[in-house]
Amino acid sequence: MKSIYVDHAATSPTHLSVVDAMIPFYYENFGNPSSMHQFGRKARLVVDEARAVIAKTINACEREIIFTSGGTEADNLAVVGYAMANRAKGKHIITTSIEHHALLHTCGHLEKNGFDVTYLKVDEYGEIILEDLRNAIREDTILVSIMYGNNEVGTLQPIKQIGDLLAEQSIAFHTDAVQAYGIEEIDVKEMKIDFLSASAHKINGPKGVGFLYANSKHKIQPHLFGGEQERKRRAGTENVAGIVGLREAAQIAITERQAKNKQYRAFRDKMISIFNEQGITYEINGKTTSCLPHILNVSFQGVGIESLLVNLDLAGIAASSGSACTAGSLEPSHVLKAMFPSDKERTMSSIRFSFGLGNTIEEIELVAYETVKIVQRIKK
User: Fold this and answer.
1) pTM of the model as a whole
2) Which residue segment(s) compose the domain that 63 sits in?
3) Same domain, 362 and 276
């Protein structure tokens, strides 16, 4: 059986057009954007052009886009940067129990430095309850950070309703949109989002580059010190080739978004239909509507996830048990623990299939049938 990659939520292959766009900026147009000579000016021009393209994809202003090394840095800059710049107004932050560790560990750092963090619970589908958010708001609440779509189970949060609620309270709103950017239609003005994190390697761009949208009305404190790049908000020479790759990947993702959404939903439906026709016992984790179409998280009762993943790998199939950032851990997913606190077996028997560039319906059928065979063999 040929190798099949269905772990695109962990990282995605770089689109050939992205690679082609990046190559000249390694050896030909290699200038430093801060240099005043022609080499620097050419580099500055492409960085500014990329900033305009990225801003347009989410209905932001160019000056509100800060290029970073990826989603983790964007999360850190938004949450720590805003908290430290505005701590005189209050030291209470609200987030959820299912955030990516880039956010959870950032909040843990702030707790060690005098901030109080409330972690909202989620329901069995991985969605917050808006009334819980409303009740958690205090006079000293300055920031709420809730991810757009979950990287493990795909559930989308009610971002527009959250934005409306927080705007009424004049509380800043950050969302980690690393899994949603390029998949979902995002308008930061309409949704009243103040900060948004995204990463290139989730949308067939290069690793090591991403961006933070930061509403120009909010002040953030930088945590890198050096030059005056990114309007003094993020020091360090810009990754010009990476930024060009991000721009190209974003343009492709936005252009193909509707077609890809349709394709990924067809992949989900095909896998589920094969599981049904083969009569195996399974449970879908997360919502089946209002979800990221490229993520399907499934629990197979009585099947140890380690055995399932090893057997899939031996069959040439690359899937995962959750976030790549917790690879090697034998602990159940913190996301599934939050969704099913009293059902340990379900949290220990879940697998995530995530679709992307290069996958075909024929591949998905092969993955589904091979999964069925392995599940049946393990249960025997």
Assistant:
1) 0.95
2) 16-251
3) yes
